[in-house]
Design goal:
The protein is mostly helical. It has one domain. A two-stranded antiparallel ribbon has the order 1-2. The longest helix is centred in the middle third of the chain and has 33 residues.
Length: 262
């Protein structure tokens, strides 16, 4: 076990720092793909959005668990442990926060696929937005913005991509996967760059020099990363809720007027 047992009051305080998902769970998990299918033709992809929304919600719950453990490890190693250990606090909190950011990326992909299915979008046209390495949620956002700009769900999806906290969380995840993600508090660290430095003396003489020791300064503290990932998580839940509302409106037009009918 990577941390000790926290008292109930502390656990409740940690839980209060993250949004509740009970109401959203009822809305999402009440969407039965089989019952939705009864109101659509066999070739319709609209019912396929239901399991996509289930997946988005479940992965978002994984992100919530990871963030809960982030706070729990910070509290344990900074406040509850007999001898505080900042290095362990940073390392373990970073582990769980990065896991949460990765979950949010995956949940956004699930949500994007739900939008493709519920609006029966042409995937070939959606995939033309951006290059082959662009995420599905970025492509869907660009497609909706171009082709369905007045839809409320388009404004909601685009607002998530434009939010500073979401951009930072996704950049953190992308750097962790593809490049390098460093935080303060883990000892000496080095950026991936050439170590020789160019210089120019006062008399205009130019040269190169090689320094030793000290390492490099990371861009973030672990608390910075935790803060923007938590905000990204909160924003994602709001957008997921708005997409569910849009989906329910589509179902209503097909004859499903109450979610209890599902």
């Amino acid at each position: 076990m990577s941390r000790g047992e926290l008292d109930q009051a502390t656990l409740e305080q940690i839980d209060s720092r993250l949004p509740r998902v009970t109401t959203l769970a009822e809305r999402v998990l009440g969407l039965s793909p089989a019952f939705v299918s009864m109101c659509f033709q066999p070739e319709s992809s609209v019912p396929v959005a239901a399991p996509c929304l289930h997946d988005a919600f479940h992965v978002a719950c994984e992100a919530r668990y990871a963030l809960h453990e982030t706070f729990a490890h910070l509290v344990w190693y900074r406040e509850k442990r007999q001898k505080p250990d900042e290095g362990a606090a940073v390392w373990l909190a970073l582990f769980y926060t990065t896991a949460a950011a990765s979950c949010l990326y995956a949940a956004a992909e699930d949500l994007a696929n739900a939008l493709v299915e519920m609006f029966e979008l042409d995937r070939k046209k959606v995939n033309q937005e951006g290059n082959s390495g662009t995420s599905v949620h970025a492509k869907v956002g660009a497609y909706l913005s171009k082709n369905m700009p007045t839809e409320a769900v388009t404004r909601a999806v685009c607002s998530l991509g434009q939010s500073e906290s979401w951009r930072k969380a996704m950049q953190w995840r992308n750097r962790w996967v593809h490049e390098q993600s460093l935080v303060r508090g883990l000892g000496i660290v080095y950026n991936r760059e050439k170590r020789w430095r160019s210089y120019t003396d006062a008399d205009g003489t130019r040269g190169v020099e090689l320094g030793f020791g000290g390492g490099d300064m990371p861009d973030h503290s672990v608390d910075d990363v935790v803060a923007f990932v938590v905000l990204a998580f909160e924003g994602f839940l709001r957008i997921l809720d708005e997409v569910v509302t849009s989906y329910l409106n589509i179902l209503s037009k097909a004859g499903i007027t109450h979610q209890s009918e599902l």
